[in-house]
Amino acid sequence: MAFVIERLAAFVAAARKEHLSAEVRAKAQRAVLDTLASLVAGVATENARLSSRSALSCFGIGSEPVWFTGERLHPLGALFANCAAASSLDIDDGHCRAAGHPGAAIVPAALAEAGRLGRCGGDALTAIAIGYDVALRIAAARRFTDTMSFASGQWTGFGVAAAVSWLRGLPADRIAHAMAIAAAEAPQNLPQGDCQASSVKGSSPWSTVAAMFATQRAGHGMTGSLDMLDREHVYNVEAIVDELGGRWLITETYLKPYAACRYTHPVIDAVLQLVASQNDEEPIEGISIDIFPEARKLPNETAPMSLEGAQFSVPFVAALAALRGAEAFRPLRPQSLVDQAVIALADKVEIRYPEDLAGYFPGSTPARVRMVWGRRALTANVPLPLGDASNPMSLSAVEQKLHDLARGILSPDQCRTLIASIAALGRGELMPLLACLQSAGLASSRQP
User: Fold this and answer.
1) Quick one: pLDDT at residue 305?
2) Most buried among 18, 156, 326, 416, using CB within 10 Å?
3) How far apart are CA 281 and CA 74, in angstroms?
4) How many angstroms separate the CA atoms of 79 and 59, rounded?
5) Could you tell me whether strands 286-291 and 349-352 are parallel, antiparallel, or unpaired per DSSP bridges?
6) Residues in contact with 42: Cβ distance below 8 Å, sequence separation at least 6, in sequence order
């Protein structure tokens, strides 16, 4: 009997554009829109700036564009920089059961490879759908433990290798080895501790670069461990291939309206609901938060020193949402870190991890928030945050997300042209989008 990775590779090799339903194509197109919205905002961050500078030092100047900057690097360096920008603000898409983020790795790799090969927009969308499906099936089938790392870089390489292999037309046996090599050499992402958030986060940039190199090597005949997914103590093995070709997991992804860890999103939603229901201007005296127990892993700094620290802090995002609204997360800005009113309120936030919210993760991320104004207290429950597959953002909302996140980096006209070029993918046109990606943004886009 074939190994699981061989069954996945056979599915990839046999896939055709015509196999994708209208819903799957639409979700792939939405994934491009959302990932590029996340990426354009990330371009202006210190994380992306330092990643691009380091990629230049390590890989050198080349022909491939660092998107929206006007810079060009070696293909692997440009890919590293683009993936870093897409994941810098933690506003990229994800999948609940996979407990991580596919788009920041798979979308930049598939678009760049489709462009180099002269493939059409439909091919790019097909490769993205394939990459998502392979990566998410493997990630969602993991047997989670309390000690493991949830870093996406551990599994996104499977999807990158699958997408790129399909675009290159590799046979099934080479695709299997490409995925196996990519997985074996991906960043292993040991748990990073609880005291401070870091700027490496999910390690998707290195995972993507490793997968590209793995695909190249597999194409030349190198081999990987084909039995790596056939381990019942690590994976629910049959779940990996359940309904393969019939159920496309890209349709189950979530989008993020706020630049913060997904664990914090139900808290932000609840706080925004409560603030909107409060008519007077009494000061907030306290915020109590009940959240699912897995959120204990967050550092929860009340006065974070970095954007990463803010993204991974339940008390800080609750206070920021209460005092500055949703706009403060589109994107999260360095000046929020020195907002003394927000810091003072964050210090008053109480967090609990009650038993009645246990057992939901990773399928959902529920929270319950109680806010107090003088003698008045209100409570809001959020079982599924905005953007969840069962509580989705509309297409117009995702387009607005791009406009919001690109402010100061792209002009409104550039945003509209970018949105139109993404829509053109569905008509088979890739070149208009590549032209948008290669153009420089506004002069301020590379400022830290």
Assistant:
1) 93
2) 156
3) 55
4) 11
5) parallel
6) 48, 84, 85, 86, 87, 88, 89
Centroid of chain to Cα 103: 5
Q: Judging by DSSP bridges, how do beta strands 286-291 and 71-73 pair with one another? A: unpaired
Q: How far is CA 287 from its chain centroid?
A: 29
Q: Answer whether the bond into residue 362 is a cis peptide, omega within 30°.
A: yes
Q: Which residues of the chain have pLDDT under 50?
A: 443-448
Q: Which of 400, 9, 416 is nearest to 176 (CA)?
A: 9
Rg of the Cα atoms in the chain: 21
User: Each residue of 93-102: b (16+ CB within 10 Å) or e?
Assistant: bbbbbbbbbb
Determine contact, residues 62/77, Cβ cutoff 8 Å. Answer: yes
Phi, psi (degrees; rounded to nearest 5) at 376: -105, 135
d(CA 41, CA 445): 9
Residue 370 main-chain phi, psi, to 5 deg: -120, 125
**Residue (of 216, 217, 195, 192) closest to 203 by Cα position:** 192
| Phi and psi at residue 447, to the nearest 5° | -80, 140
The pLDDT assigned to 388 comes to: 95
Q: Which residues contact 301 (CB under 8 A, 6 or more apart)?
A: 196, 197, 309, 310, 312, 313, 316
Structure tokens at 245: 């070709």
Task: Give the HSE-up count for residue 280: Cα atoms under 13 Å, Cβ half-sphere.
Answer: 8
The whole-angstrom separation of Cα 287 and Cα 289 is: 7
Cα gap 317→91, rounded to integer Å = 14
Q: Please give the structure tokens belonging to residue 171.
A: 């046979």
